[in-house]
Write a structure and sequence with these properties.
single chain; alpha/beta; Rossmann fold; Ubiquitin-like (UB roll); 3 domains; 15 helices; about 45% helix
C-alpha cells in the first residue's frame, strides 16, 4: 500500500531544501487534496496561510474521526504514524508555525502514548523546533467541524461558528491556521519524496453487511461493485451508505467519483462505504442514523436542535406502524428545512440520508404507514 511506505524523515530534509514556496509548489503540482471530505487543494490552503503577514500561525491535524463507518485514520495511526508527524512538521516549517495540535478522537485514547513517543522520535530525527501538542477529544461528533475543533482547543464549548472568516485567516486564537485531515498530512511526505506517488490512490473504509470489512487503498473512480465484492457480502446487496452525512443510494454499477456520487444526491466525502443487504430495512437504517444525529446535535441552532428530534419521533412512529402516509410528506418537508437552514455542516447533512431514502426506497416507508 502507498500509505504504508516509509520515508525515514527524508521528506522533511527535502522540504527544507525546497523552501516554503517550493513545498507549496510541489503539493500543487502533485495534486494533493484534502482527504477529510471537502477535497480542497492542500497546496492552495497552505499558500493562503503562508501569505498571511501574522507572525503567529498554527497547525491543526484533524484526527477526530467520528463519522460512523470511518476508520482509515486509525489505520494510519496504528501502522505508519511517523508519516503523520513528519507531514505536520513540514507544514510547520512551510508556514513558519511554532506550534501544532493533533486533535485525537476520544475513542482512540489508547493510541495516545504511542503517538507521543512517535512525536519525540520524529522531532529528534528532523531536529524541528515546532511543538506538537496532542489533545484527546471527548467523543463529540460536532468537533469534526474545523471551527468547532478550534473552539474546543481554546477551551470553549465545541460548537461551530459562521464562516467567513475562514481559519486560514482567522483561526486558532484568531491567528491564521492550517487545518487538515490526518490522512492528508500523512500523504504530504509521500508526495514530496516519491516521484511515483499517486494522487488518485485513497483509502476507503468498508463495513456493514460484508464478511471482510476493512481499509482498502484504491484509486478514486473505482467501481462500487468491485469495492463491495472485495468485502465479500453474504447476501444480495440492496444499498450503500456513504457514512451518515453522505447519504444513501441503491447498489449499482457506478464509479466512485465526486461527480458521479453527487449526481445521485449523495456525497463521497471521506470515502466511507457502509453496505446494506436485502435482509435489512431502510426504515430501520434511517431511524438509527436519525438517533445518531439527534444525540450529536450541539444544540446551537434551532433547525438542527429541534428538527433532528422531531424527525426521530416521526421515524419511530413509522417503525411502530403508528404513522400515516401523510406523515411522510411532513418528514420530507422537515428534512429539507433542516438541511437548508442549519448553521453548520452537521445540520446541513443530518437529513441527507433520509431525503435519499425517501427518494430511492419510499415504498419501504409507505408499507409501514396506515
Amino acid at each position: 500500500m502507498q500509505i504504508l511506505r516509509k520515508t525515514d524523515q527524508k521528506a522533511y530534509a527535502k522540504a527544507k531544501k525546497l523552501g516554503p514556496k517550493g513545498v507549496v509548489k510541489i503539493l500543487k503540482d502533485k495534486g494533493l487534496t484534502g482527504r477529510g471530505g471537502a477535497s480542497f487543494p492542500t497546496g492552495l490552503k497552505w499558500e493562503m496561510v503562508l501569505k498571511e503577514k501574522e507572525k503567529e500561525k498554527y497547525i491543526i491535524c484533524n484526527a477526530d474521526e467520528g463519522e460512523p463507518g470511518t476508520f482509515k485514520d486509525k489505520f494510519i495511526l496504528v501502522n505508519n504514524p511517523e508519516l503523520v508527524i513528519e507531514g505536520i512538521l513540514i507544514a510547520a516549517y512551510t508556514i513558519k508555525a511554532t506550534r501544532a495540535y493533533i486533535y485525537l478522537r476520544g475513542e482512540y485514547e489508547y493510541l495516545e502514548n504511542k503517538i507521543r513517543n512517535v512525536i519525540k522520535k520524529v522531532k529528534a530525527k528532523t531536529k524541528s523546533k515546532a511543538n506538537i501538542e496532542l489533545i484527546v477529544g471527548q467523543g463529540a461528533y460536532i468537533c469534526g467541524d474545523e471551527t468547532a475543533i478550534i473552539a474546543s482547543i481554546e477551551g470553549k464549548r465545541g460548537q461551530p461558528r459562521k464562516k467567513p472568516p475562514f481559519p486560514t485567516v482567522h483561526g486558532l486564537y484568531g491567528k491564521p491556521t492550517i487545518i487538515n485531515n490526518l490522512e492528508t498530512f500523512a500523504n504530504v511526505p509521500l508526495a514530496i519524496l516519491f516521484d511515483d506517488w499517486d494522487s488518485k490512490l485513497t483509502l476507503f473504509s468498508l463495513s456493514g453487511d460484508v464478511t471482510k470489512p476493512g481499509v482498502y487503498e484504491l484509486p478514486v473512480g473505482t467501481n462500487l461493485r468491485k469495492l463491495v465484492e472485495l468485502g465479500k457480502p453474504k447476501h444480495k446487496v440492496k444499498a450503500v451508505y456513504f457514512g451518515c452525512f453522505g447519504g444513501c443510494m441503491p447498489y449499482s454499477n457506478i464509479n466512485l467519483t465526486n461527480e458521479n456520487v453527487c449526481g445521485k444526491d449523495c456525497m463521497l466525502g471521506a470515502h466511507t462505504i457502509i453496505v446494506v443487504d436485502e435482509k435489512h430495512s431502510i426504515v430501520d437504517m434511517a431511524t438509527n442514523v436519525a438517533k445518531f444525529y439527534e444525540f450529536e446535535s450541539c444544540g446551537k441552532c434551532t433547525p438542527c436542535r429541534e428538527g433532528t428530534m422531531r424527525i426521530l419521533n416521526i421515524l419511530e412512529n413509522i417503525s411502530l406502524l403508528e404513522a400515516r402516509k401523510r406523515d411522510l410528506e411532513t418528514l420530507q418537508e422537515l428534512a429539507e428545512v433542516v438541511k437548508e437552514t442549519s448553521l453548520c455542516g452537521l445540520g446541513q447533512t443530518a437529513t441527507q440520508h433520509l431525503l435519499n431514502a425517501l427518494k430511492f426506497f419510499r415504498k419501504e416507508f409507505e408499507e409501514k404507514c396506515r
